[in-house]
Amino acid sequence: MTQPPHDEPTAAGPDELREQVERTREGLGQTVQALAAKTDVKARAQEKAAEVKDQAAAKAGEIKGQATAKAGELKAKAADLAHHAHDRLPDAVKDKAAQAAEQARTKAAQAGQTWEEKAPEPVRQKTAQGAQLARDNRKVLLAAAGVTAVVWLACRHREG
Questions:
Q1: Cβ-based neighbours of 89, under 8 Å, separated by 6 or more
Q2: What's the whole-model pTM score?
Q3: What pLDDT digit, counting tens, does each position of 10-45 carry?
Q4: What is the DSSP string of 18-69?
Q5: How many whole angstroms separate alpha carbon 127 and alpha carbon 119?
């Protein structure tokens, strides 16, 4: 006769034996499911991909926050530098700059008027569309100009 396992007591009757068999079946079923899950390479790869995707999204959010903060710092620093430079300029230079700006505005207005009078209608329409696009994306254009200025200043600082 076979001896019962050492961890299971011997069944006293058929009902108890049925319960032991049922517990053993459940345990074996769970073991088989765990083994099947370990061998399901596709499901494990999908789980790992989802995990990596979540980690990447979290990291991207973190980096975006850092970039936004850094951009704010750089913008504040640029504004501060501009104010310091403006404060240090002599009044004569400020007046000259104001006169030059006014002359540039006047010349630009004159050039615009000449353009309106002499440019063909399709060209004027395309130009107006381009100008509207620039006005609609002003923040993007200003940000790009700011980044360009910062990069240019950083390059000049390295050279000097």
A1: 97
A2: 0.34
A3: 767 888 889 999 999 999 999 988 888 778 778 778
A4: HHHHHHHHHHHHHHHHHHHHHH-HHHHHHHHHHHHHHHHHHHHHHHHHHHHH
A5: 10
